Amino acid sequence: MIQKITLQSIRCFQKAEFKFSPGVNLTIGPNGSGKTTVLEAVLLFVFGRLQSVSKDFLAVRSGEEVGRVEIQIDTEGEKIEASAAILPGEKVFKVFSNKTPTSKMIGFVKGVAFNPETIDLVSGPPAVRRRELDLAIAEKEPVFVKTLLQFKNILKQRNNLLRRIILGKAKKGEIDFWDSELARHSLEIFSKRKEFLAKINRSLGSSYAGLTGRKTNLALEYLGSADYGKFMECLAGSFDSDLRDGSTQVGPHRDDFLFREGKFMMREHSSRGEQRMAAVAFKLEVREFLRGDEEPILVFDDVFSELDEGRREAVSRVIGKGQVFISATDERVVPENLKKKAKVLRLE
What we know:
The chain is of the alpha/beta class. 40% of the residues lie in helices and 24% in strands.
């Protein structure tokens, strides 16, 4: 469990320390009070980066040269301390006093995050769903981060070469090497994603039924941009369009997945409330996927205000054991059964 977080020169906090209980932790405060910042600091040690900014340094207080987040964790009686120093252009993680690569900090704390963006997972853009897939797998299998980074670099090199071919500064045959590398890494990512979705689908329907009170055959369907069994052929077939656009049209960076009930796609045939419950069910199944010796933490950043009263109560009933972090502008949106057992932090 997370015992304590310390913030220094992060957004509205010059220096602040927050201690948490092993159960429900509720942060209440108006917009701009820093409640999301507290939760985001926790998630820094889940995802390896701050989620609300494109560059971590944007969260550092204006005029400061460095921001710092420190965390103290108790794992089966063993206290672990980690920190992140956020500077222009880099972020330095340390576990105790040992410098640790950012890639190894993904999943340092196992956790699942709910925020207004991910609660709209069903109807949101494909990039959001791809990120959810990859982060969940990376939390469970840190080596997957290396695969993703290698794929990203290969894709960048191939796209740069496409533009050079367009300008007549390179020959078409030069792309063969990058095609081969792209195919190898694409197949690995595709396989991991399919394996993950197969595990989620085993009980996604029952999780959704538990939230909504109705029987369902809800399942996730992977939409590949290519036939990965014949990926080199697909690359060859898309080469002309790649040249026109100066970018690679097929691969894991173009894939998506859909929430489907039978023959109906939820984003087209379900209400907004039903879509949000499907997103919650997905996240709860991600928690099951991540579960090991330690219960993954749950983080609800101003999500209950996005749900009606009945759905708030439904979510609160299935949270279960473990450490939970909740933020809210108005505490009246937080279900009573959670408030009664919560450690409450009020921010002005």
